[in-house]
Amino acid sequence: MKSLVVQKYGGTSVGDVQKIMHVADKIIELRKNGKDVIVILSAMSGETNRLVGLAHSITPTPNQREMDRLLCTGEMVTIALLAICLENQGYPAISLTGRQMGILTDSSYTKAKIKEINSDVIQKYLDAGKVVVAAGFQGIDETGNVTTLGRGGSDTSAVAIAAAMKASICEIYTDVDGVYTADPRIIKEARRIDRISYEEMLELASLGAKVLHSRSVEFGLKYNVPILVKSTFKEGGGTLVTKEDSSMEDIVVSGLSCLKEQAKVKFIDVKDKPGIAATIFSSIADKNIVVDMIIQNVGSDGLTDLSFTIDAADVDSIKPTLQEISTSIDAEYSIDSNISKVSVVGAGMRSHSGIASKMFKELGKSGINIQMISTSEIKISIVVNKNDTDRAMQVLHDCFELGKS
Amino acid sequence: MKSLVVQKYGGTSVGDVQKIMHVADKIIELRKNGKDVIVILSAMSGETNRLVGLAHSITPTPNQREMDRLLCTGEMVTIALLAICLENQGYPAISLTGRQMGILTDSSYTKAKIKEINSDVIQKYLDAGKVVVAAGFQGIDETGNVTTLGRGGSDTSAVAIAAAMKASICEIYTDVDGVYTADPRIIKEARRIDRISYEEMLELASLGAKVLHSRSVEFGLKYNVPILVKSTFKEGGGTLVTKEDSSMEDIVVSGLSCLKEQAKVKFIDVKDKPGIAATIFSSIADKNIVVDMIIQNVGSDGLTDLSFTIDAADVDSIKPTLQEISTSIDAEYSIDSNISKVSVVGAGMRSHSGIASKMFKELGKSGINIQMISTSEIKISIVVNKNDTDRAMQVLHDCFELGKS
Known about the structure:
2 copies of one chain form a homodimer. Chain A is α/β, with parallel strands linked by helices. Chain A has 13 helices and 18 strands.
């Protein structure tokens, strides 16, 4: 069996015909070295936004099935163009849509989840000596309608295809050369991480490190497909997302992330009795609004304050629900959009204590007030005033010496 | 059974979101009147050219399968947007691609011909009370690859769908309000024709009256689907393309058309012996170059001049073949790109004589030299110097009094 390479190129890597020709050159190099190649593409950068803009100029709430019909066209354009490049240079290639590859998803239009991939079709074309150029971001549901996987979904397509084809690795080419200890635009000492565990990457990805789609990391973890994130435009470097090993445990804190578009909702003087939290959060869940950190402090007077964070984009749509809850439980509420969430992530936290106290102490010394705290096995998240975000990131990056390799 | 309306809107009619919303309004009007509606759309005006441009910036000869994968995306965008408009206004709609409608074609990528349509899928959605928004221009071949029908192919999609669904008429909405006796940009007295036979329309369509795709008229003729060509932006008017009836025979000349991008090839002093013409034209056919008018004059000396016209776009690619032929039959050749073809079309010619002589006499009086002549039952075509084209059109429009209704 020939060795198989699975590569995914994001929107900026296929942003125009020149860049697509550059991708073709990279693939031809692999073919010359005798590799089988599957390449997964995103739409040209800006194209998905353009299509969303067209739909939103009609209505803010377009029909979701039709939205996916619209959005799936961006990847069809790039895969056709790359296949044209390869064929033109004498390298047989075939573009395949989500439907043609049998990428079966559920029917949650615009945020569908992959259930199954028919590896036979892809294998047939590989066996015939073709480069398979696959459309990322898309699949079909059981009734044959096109679905899309949500923003960044092409990463997930790539890892899922790599898993289905039993590839030894999935390479994700993007416009940055890897995952950093913090956003380099905020922290200038931020350092590229060579290796990181799936679990850590999941915490970083879901917390705002925009390098990889969270679902792609979940697929990597589930099927044990190592993911190598690299720059399309720069040789070398890269971050390998892989199974946790003992060397990783020595690194207590791997990286920081922050989410700025957050809001905090607080119910004040809630009667502390069973079922109150259920009342509140089931009403919100019914509106499909995701609640993140939840904090409840019980006072001695039988009254409690209950706070939680939501996406800032959901503030307008949650208000009527909050008003209803407020009436039903007889408690006032407030919304504060002037907050950020900052997180410290590291697999080594499991075996090291004192990380939280060190973190709180250093922030305190710098006069940064912590409004909320939540922790998991490998993560500590705090809510701070939005104006303190960048400073908090800098303090934490310094105190855990993340700039040092 | 509810009455069914089939409408097709061309690229300028869906050129932006505003125009698509205007189309939605027209369809909602029909729904309010209790009609079932199938609407076939082209890509936004300019979009197909943009996509072709992208491919041609890679190579002038892109892989044809991939070209169709690329080109089929334009219609997917417009059908999704129109379905979003309709759904948003409370009118259930569903966009369907060529694949979803089971529009089976041959495998001649970029110029495929429709073989079969699965009317069940469309009927199912009509029965469910939905407006069917169908992608024009596209189908799939037997192996499941996307195909496109060639420029203007959405007209053909529309008439084929109307035939498959046994609709009583197919309405083609475009940016002109019908078929004219001549191009109104050349002849200011040109008049809109109310009714015209399929056969006359075929002669006009294939000769350069760009209103309807020829294949769509062939489908109309074959399945007897009347085609009404109308303006999207103007009420009233229109031209009905339908079966010939006795009233049409009274009209001797229905219209004129001209093709300017033509070239004339002439072989001089060819030995007049059996098989010479076959040698010449089979070599050219092997190169997939279409030869139009052919004229051969036998001289008394056993030598003959043989002329024919081709598309001006084929001049460069035919030259090597002409050189080979020239060597093999030992005759010189010349190419003249400075010509046009002008045609007079009318079903009434069948029963009226003297049209050709009147035509030649009037052109002669105006000093316009006729280089070649060819005739069919309902058409007379001539080749003139390109500079004489517009004047020849004017002379013919006047002498057959086409401006009078």
